[in-house]
Amino acid sequence: MTNKSDIGLIGLAVMGENLALNIESKEWRVSVYNRTVAGVEEGVVEGFVSGRAHGKKIMGFNNIEDFVNSISQPRKIMLMVRAGNPVDELMEQLYPFLSPGDILIDGGNSNFEDTARRVRESEAKDIYFIGAGVSGGEEGALHGASIMPGGSAGAWFEVRPILQSIAAKAEDGSPCCEWIGPGGSGHFVKMIHNGIEYGDMQLISEAYFIMKHLLEASNEEMAAYFETWNEGKLKSFLIEITSKILKYKDAGGDYLIDKILDTAGQKGTGKWSVINAMELEMPLNLIATAVFERNLSARKELRMEASSIYHREASQKTYLAEELIKEIYSSLYASKLVSYAQGFNVLKYASDKYGWRLNLASIARLWRGGCIIRSAFLNEIAKAFEEDRHLSNLLLAPYFKDEIVSALPFWKRLVAVAAKEELPVPAFSSALNYFYSLTTNNLPANLVQAQRDYFGAHTFERIDLPRGVFMHENWIGKANSTKSGNYII
Questions:
Q1: Under a CB-based contact definition with an 8 Å cutoff, are residues 273 and 284 in contact?
Q2: At CA 298, angle to CA 296 and CA 299, rounded to 5?
Q3: Which residues of 411-420 are buried (b: 16+ CB within 10 A; e: fewer)?
Q4: pLDDT for position 266
Q5: Which listed residue, 105, 139, 295, 402, has the most CB atoms within 10 A of its CB?
Q6: Which spans are transmembrane here (predicted)?
Q7: Residue 21: which domain range?
Q8: Based on the domain organization, do 95 and 199 belong to the same domain?
Q9: Are 374 and 367 in contact (CB under 8 A)?
Q10: pLDDT tens by residue, 160-205
Q11: In a shared domain, residues 72 and 195
């Protein structure tokens, strides 16, 4: 076949279509194919090629062999299908038509352990496999996303020109796409990105909640605050769209935000972030809180029943807007820093455990454009990890230490005010308590460990002995000296 394409793409849902159009707009020729599965209407490929892709360098195929043969070698095929079994099923369909050196790219939100397995399985067949996290939603897919590729390093040279051409560009012009590392590292980084996204969204919703209930601010007033904040340290995609959401009116002329039911959904990557942080024995308190709050929000009927039983005292609403807004701003900023600090800590420990050698400064930079959590302070995060590549926690960096110290008085007051007024701000509270625990030299964990040794002979360390020396006490004078073993967690 003459005039073969540069890359193939499978999966023509919104993300797949937009990515295909983005790739073609950068002067690459694209072949597209859509899986035939139950519930998917016929003619998806034809509809796309004759519709949005009409007149463009995009070729459509309904036969998988013809699709593969239409791509120049080494073939580069991007899979934009639902995570899980569909990816494995599609790979099995593709293998018979591939040649050594061909490259499969999974652009979905796959579990990083699945990606690591697919890398091994594909490389055993002399096929390269890349797990590429893609962030930015449909707009990012069309105009430039943040892309986090990892897996078969030998494929990076081949795919780099295409992936970096379709990535978002940071303010300094650099593409928001860089090689992450081996195995499932690309999808792990995307997973933590999504976890931070959960935390950011919960924090912003709590800021909105306080303005609405303690200041009785109108949607337009709240939108103005967020719009102003988007011009400074809090500048970010989520702050920007929050301002737009608050001002948006439906066809009837009413504010749409006031008609949306207070139940939030989720697709699972936030939960995965928390599970994997627990496996690594790393605290991810704020993101875990955000996940659990979505779970609780979905129990609408239960919350309605509980609210009918427990009646809250009416607020006096004597708060000065200028003072309270400053407290909300400072709390939001400081809590976001905690969220990023926790997320990057998980990345650091995962890198050590799995031997990925992640470049944390590079990761911060590739999140500066295109992705959902792009924020103004990501440059400062990158700078902190460059200045100290052994930095154990982002909050220990001089710049962020000064930022936290400046925000702390307002942060404390806001959490106290919310508790007094019986308003839930679980993410603000979680972030503040993480900060207090992190900066407390002696925590009450000595009592926890004593309890564990008392009832389970789990041993403990003493402050008057070197670390790593574990003791067991015969607390009640009746048991023998048998102990359960050394449990550090």
A1: yes
A2: 70
A3: bbbbbebbee
A4: 82
A5: 105
A6: none
A7: 7-183
A8: no
A9: yes
A10: 999 999 999 998 999 999 999 999 999 999 999 999 999 999 999 9
A11: no
Sign of the dihedral through C-alpha 451, 454, 457, 462: positive
In terms of domains, do 416 and 458 share one? no
CATH of the domain at 14: 3.40.50.720
- The question of whether 322 is a catalytic residue gets the answer no
**Annotated binding-site members for substrate:** 109, 135-137, 193-194, 198, 267, 294, 452, 458
In a domain, 405, yes or no: yes
> Residue positions in the annotated binding site for NADP(+)?
11-16, 34-36, 81-83, 109
Buried b (16+ CB within 10 A) or exposed e, 262-289: eebeeeebbbbbbebbeebebbbbbbbb
Tokens of 275: 């599970």
Q: Based on the fold, state whether residues 401 and 489 are members of the same structural domain.
A: no
Same domain, 203 and 340: yes
- Note whether 387 and 185 are within 8 A (CB): no
Active site residue 169: no
Catalytic residue among 17, 24, 190, 336: 190
CATH code of the domain covering residue 413: 1.10.1040.10
Residues in the chain: 489
Amino acid in position 348: K
DSSP secondary-structure letter at 8? E
Sheet bearing 128-135, strands edge to edge:
58-61, 30-33, 7-10, 76-79, 103-106, 128-135, 146-151
Residues 58 and 30 sit within 8 Å (Cβ to Cβ): yes
What local confidence, expressed as pLDDT, does residue 67 receive? 96
pTM attached to this predicted model: 0.92
Within this chain, do residues 259 and 319 fall inside the same structural domain, yes or no? yes
Does one domain contain both 370 and 318?
Answer: yes
Read off the pLDDT of residues 257-312 as tens digits, 9 standing for 90 and up. 999 999 998 877 889 999 999 999 999 999 999 999 999 999 999 999 999 999 88
Residue the block writes with tokens 């995962």: 350
